[in-house]
Prior knowledge:
The chain is an alpha/beta fold. The strands form three sheets. A seven-stranded mixed beta sheet has the order 1-2-3-4-5-7-6, covered by helices on one side. It has a three-stranded antiparallel beta sheet with strand order 8-9-10, with no helix packed on it. A three-stranded antiparallel beta sheet has the order 11-13-12. Strand 1, helix 2 and strand 2 form a beta-alpha-beta unit.
Amino acid sequence: MESEFVVALKKEISARKNETAKVETIYFGGGTPSIINPKHIQDILTLIYAEYTVVDDAEITLEANPDDLTTEHLQAFYDAGINRLSIGIQSFDDEYLKWMNRSHTAEEALTVIDRATQIGFKDFSIDLIYGIPGMDEKQWQQQLKTSASLQVNHLSCYCLTVEPKTPLDKFIKKKIYTNTDDDMQSKHFKLLMEMAPTLGFEQYEISNFARNQHYSKHNTAYWEYKPYIGFGPSAHSFDGITRRNHASSLIAYIQDPIALIEEALTEEERFNEYILIGLRTSKGVNIEAMKNKFSETIYTHFEKELSEHENKEHIYIQDGFLRLSDGGKMYADSVASAFFLV
């Protein structure tokens, strides 16, 4: 099935080559691309470079699990042109890794960074999960200190959420596992914001932290509402107005990798997304750009909501940008929703 998928993927990549003038970032993600044969990654990159104009300093990221990154695989990914690794470490504590049903150990998580560094990788992002039942503030603090001690220049820190009908949800309902604690999760997030700068990390988006300005160029493009192209099952593309996506079925994709479902967003929907995404970033929402991007009716609505906003301590305006205060970051989605057009 892997070979059939790669054939379909390459067919789509070639078919859509006229949709962009240049490629600044390439991101292998959405699932676990590190399990794929590195030769396929190399073939896909070779095709992209042949069919598209790729900038010289393109950021090329591969999402990976620590247990997939053997020395041989790392070398092959490096040789293929991957220059940034996003590693799903989740925790440096075996107890919590087991709780999350992860297949790697804390030792493997630590080892893989060193292994990749020796091969030549310099750009790393790691994922961490906080708000796990039983994890206290001291344990979360130690997770952050461990991350800062490594050759890692980017952290993505996410609060544990329990999705309906997942194994975790079932275990919690059966009282096999303890449910999440909202108060503790808030304490973990507050501690994260307080500790990050002391460890050399800048919070440039609600969940993302960079050291020495090593921001994710790929994710930043999303947050700045730039157009993008997504290839493969469930992948989304956006041209500024219309969103297109594939169905999630791998079999359906292999049969017809060119078929896309289109959805033209209304101006109201685009405004809501612009506010939601922009407020999550440290840069904030560019008020002047918004005036040019949306109709007078939309902008008048924004000004009205801004003047009447109930929690003024959650937002502030600086240098023409609307931003969240540290307190506002605790309620980012609800603050943004107060501006929504419904």
